[in-house]
Each structure stands twice: as C-alpha cells, then as structure tokens.
Protein 1
Amino acid sequence: MKKMNVLFIAVDDLRPQLGCYGQDFVQSPNIDQLAAEGVLFERAYCQQAVCAPSRASVLSGCRPDTTTIYDLQTPLRSVMPDVLSLPQHFKQHGYETRSIGKIYHHRSDDLQGWSAEPHVSTGDWKGRGYLTDEAMEVIERTDAQLATEGSTRRGLGPAFEAAEVPDNAYHDGKDADHAIKTLNELRDQPFFLAVGFHKPHLPFNAPKHHWDVYDREALPLALNTSAPENVTEYSLTEFGELRGYFGMPKEGPIPEDLARTLVHGYCACVSYMDAQVGRVLDEVERLGLKENTVVILWGDHGWKLGEHGSWCKHTNFDIDTHAPMIVRSPERGKPDAKASGLTEFVDMYPSLCDLCDLPLPDHLEGQSFVPLMEDPDRTWKQAAFSQYPRTGVMGYTIKTEDFRYTEW
C-alpha cells in the first residue's frame, strides 16, 4: 500500500484574516481554494501565542508546561532531548523528511528529525529582509545607534517595505522555489515536506504588486480598540516588537494613518505568502501527487492589528490564540467543510499520524481531529487551553463553547 505524503505548511503570525475565514477584503485565492478542497477549522487554538513555544508544542505533541518552552531562546532538544518529534516519527517510518524556511524557531533544533539539513534561502536582502536603498540607510543608522546603547538587536529597519521586485527576490519566494525543486526530487518516495513561510511576520515587506491589489483607504481598521474592563496588569503588552522598528512611536497609541499603513502591509504580506503557497500547491498537482498527499496549513498563532488598543501577539486574548488551520486529505474528510468544534494545535501530531496510518507515540497530549474532519458538525472538545507567561507569573486561559476564562 502506497504511503500518504505530507505537505506541512507553517505560516508565521498568520491570524484568520483570509477570504475563506470570511474576511472578503483579503486577497488569498490559493489558500481559499485549499479550504474549498479540504476542511477549514473555524476554532483552532495555539498553546502559546508566540513563535517558539507554539511550534514546539506542535512538533513535540506536548503542551508548554511539558516542553517548558515559554520563550524564544530555548530550543526543543535542550529541554526534551529524547522526545520523538513529529518529523522524526515520520522519518522512523520510512519517510524522507525535509525542512524549508521557518519550521522550528531555531533552524538547528531537532536535526535528528530531518533527513537532510534544514534549508535556509539566501538572497540580496539586508537585515530582516530589506531590499530598498532607503531601508538599507535606516538599518545602518539604527544598528550604529543600537550598538552605542549596548543592545544586541540588529537589522531593524522600517516596519514595512514595498520594493518593485519579483516574488522570489524576497525570502518566501525563494523558499517556494526550493520547495518546488524538492517536490520534484522526492516525487517517487514517501515524504514529509515542511515549508515555513515568514510572512506576514514583521517587517511587512512584500513586492509592490501585492500592495497594489488593495485600496488602502477601504481596508477596515480594528473596531474594538479598548482594553477590556478591569483588565489585569498582565493581560496586555506595550507591543515592543512593533515599537522596535524605525518610525514607530515608542509609547502611546499608533496614529490612525500609520495604523492603516500597517494593516495594508499585513494584508499585502498575506497575499504575497498566499501566492507562494499557490505555487507549491500547483506543483503538487502538476506532479500527480495531489491524490496521495495530505496538506495541512496553519498559522502559528493569531495577531493583533489594533484590537484592544494593542498590536502583535504575546497575550492570552482570543485574537492572539485563535489561528487558521486547514487540512486537505485525499481519503479522509469532506471537501469544502467547516468544522466548528474546538481544536488545539497540540492535536496536529496525532491527527497527521491518523491520516497517514502511523502509530501514535505514547507521549502525545492532543487527540486526533480526523473524526471531526469526517463529521464537521459532531460534538467535539469541551475546551481549548492556552497560556502565556509574564515575569514570575503564568497566565492560563480556557476557551469553551461560549466563554473564555483567564487566570493569572
């Protein structure tokens, strides 16, 4: 019996701001088509709303209190040296496992999980992915200033850029190029191909033609710009991630005109990323692999675009813990289905095992959502759990059918 391949698409900082999630102003035709052919999970939740802990949970199958990864500095293998990771499990069952782009937060993490060294694309960009002369000048100035201040941060230019370049001048385009090359290489053997796209993570840098598909003035801004009543001191952040970029106010709210540009940039990056996803999916079909390849696309957590008067992720609010997840399986699930049951990212590992007829490792802390794919309206989990740390305090949040409760 021929093994089912896996195309595992991770997207950095992607909230459910996609056409298929009812956000009609966003141009995401390729992901929308994937959803039309698969199952869209309406209420999928990450286990912690920041890159490294969320990805560690997905790839280990364990919650943050088990991985003990709560920050960006801790590689999975430094705290769980013997855990059987998701790619490693597939590798042990005869799959060629490859990593392209951002899968783990640390590229060198879990080298034993991959059949070849993880691929990182190179290009002409500087700093955090800039191509314009204006951005280069800003980086030179800010790097010098940061050095005098004793900071180790580097490469911070503007928060957005719209260069007149082709898609593969930027990082994600080159990663899509390499994914297409790798699909051709692996077409005759079972594979687990992980492709991690960087956008729409800051800075919002995308080719200008993806900015041009939007009418800036028509883009909606956040409706709820106030913090909840009686919010705790731990609940919100000062969104230092965004404030670190050139031209961002160091305190106070983001002015409306700048907020509109940031929303425009986020949408442009979503459309840019979507185009790269489309190129990879088209190659899967061209190679005749569609009928034996499971495709899963997920954003590692949500993101605030001014909601609650804040930006970025790093909280336990629904806007940060709720993220997109779409699965297309040739043999399981109903096409163009929307599953409303609560799911968690820790469920991905057992679900992919289920879809590919692999045994479930004993350490997994999630449950397969394949029954929900086959009957999207069935009763499912009663709750989804997430958490976020502050100095000396851990905040836990539980999402149920009708409510969210958070405790610090």
Protein 2
Amino acid sequence: MRCPKCQNTMREVDFEGLTIERCECCKGLWFDLHECKKLIAIKGSEIIDAGSPSVGEEHNKLGVYDCPKCLHRMSQMVDHQQPHIWYEQCPGCGGVYLDAGEFSDLKDVTVMDMLKGWFAKPRMS
C-alpha cells in the first residue's frame, strides 16, 4: 500500500493484536474502519506514532488525497474534541489517515487542547 500523502510504501505495524499501516517515509498512519478508536483505548499505543509532528503539519497543508485502500477521494475532517487536529477519512471504506504526531495528540486530551480548540483556525476547503 502507498501513503496517500507522500506516495511511499506503508508497512504493517502490530500492536496488541491490531495491525495498522505506517508510512516508511513521513510516518503517517492508516487505520481501517474502527481501528483508530480501538487503538486509542489501549494504554501505550501512542508508541506506534513514531514520526515528527512538524512533518505531519507540513503534510496537512497539501491538497486532496485518494484512499490507499479503495482509491475514493478522502474527505478532510476535524476532530470534534480537538479541532486543531485535521485528518482524512475515506467515505468508501471508512479508513482514517493521520499525519505523524496526530495519533499521539488524539490520545492525550489536555486542558491545553481545549484552549487550542477555542483558537483553532477555521478549515479552508
């Protein structure tokens, strides 16, 4: 499978019986339907998010992306609890792509995240 952001190879990563894909280059993460929620609930799973958040932020500025599984055009989404986190979701298969650093951020909701939500920049399509 190819990374939807940088087109490099994504490799399987196993954690506590769940298998996701991680880009070898930009370290973005691909989750099949419901895998992200399942992994968020598992203590220590943030270790799979091995990339640099600054690389992830750069990739968030790019355009539109196709799903690496079913090739549908992915929708850009905003996490409702942490609106500073933008991610891509496939309307076809329900898969989710998170840039490097976003999974760790999703797992750790802090008071600072709530403040960031108040000051989050509006999304531009």
Protein 3
Amino acid sequence: MGHARRRRRCRRLRGAAAACRDCRGRFQARARRAAMMVHEFGLLRRILKERSGLNLGEDKQEMLEGKLRPLLKEFELPSLSHLALALMKPDSHVLRTRVAQAVTVQESYFFRDKAPFNYFIDVMLPKLMAKREVSRRIRVWCAAA
C-alpha cells in the first residue's frame, strides 16, 4: 500500500522522527484532555480536604478536571498528571493554594443574594437584640462554615 492510501496529514515528513507543528499541537491537546489517573484524583482529593476542608466524592473527577485545566496553562504544566506530581513537591504551597481556590467558591450565597442578608439585618437582628437587651450577646451560626 502506498502513501496515498494512508491519509497522512504530514506527508512532507514521511517517516521522519520529528512531528510537524500541526501534529505536535494535536498531540499536546490530546495529552491535556487525557483524564487523570485514579491515584492522582485521590491525591488531589486529599490535598483539597487538608487545604480547604472540601470533601469531594468519587463521582466528582470530571468536575475537578474541568476546574483544574486552567491551572495547567498558568503554571506551564503539560497535563493533570504533571499537576499532581507538582503538588507532591515540598515547595508547592502556591500551587496548592491555587488548586484550592480553583475548586472552591470564593463567595457565600448569603452575601450574593441581598434579600436574606437584608431580612436578617432589618427583621431578625432587631428582634434578637430586644430579647438580649440585658446581656447584649448574640451567637450566630452559619451552616456554610
């Protein structure tokens, strides 16, 4: 079978060891899309638990991959496997912090939606203050903490 039937995109190289720029780009894109290994996902879950208290279920691997992919470019890492390896280094404090930030929501819904906050200030807080007029002590518990 001749070269014409092989449908190569890079005919100009014909057997050369080096790939052309287009093929190299497709290979790198494919590597970036490759899913992380089970042990890498476990490592990332452990780091997130330690750094942010976030306990990811085993069904959250795709979600985690999607949130971490932008960090590959930021830290010039070729794949999620390399990200997991970089996180194991002792001097990876900045990377660990960025991973935790990428996965967690940085703002509480309590403050995003003004209505509950305004209701608390305008209605609930005055009632609580009236009940605690003598001690003037109020304890507030937040379910998100």
Protein 4
Amino acid sequence: MFDHGSEDGAVEDLRLHRVLVVRSLLSPLFFKHRRHAKTKN
C-alpha cells in the first residue's frame, strides 16, 4: 500500500511538469492569436 504512494507522487510530478511545459509552449501562441484578434477587430 505505502510503496505505491511514492510512485503516485512521481506520476503527479511528471503530469505537473508536462502541464508546465505545454503551457510554456502554448502560451506564446495564444498571445499571438489574441493580438491578431485585437488587430482584426
């Protein structure tokens, strides 16, 4: 039971890392889209 606790923690860390990486990669794209939307309007 307790052995799986450490594994779950590692999995959660990986998921958080993925989310942060994806956000860092996508955030500039979203900002560009927002800028284009503002210029169009």
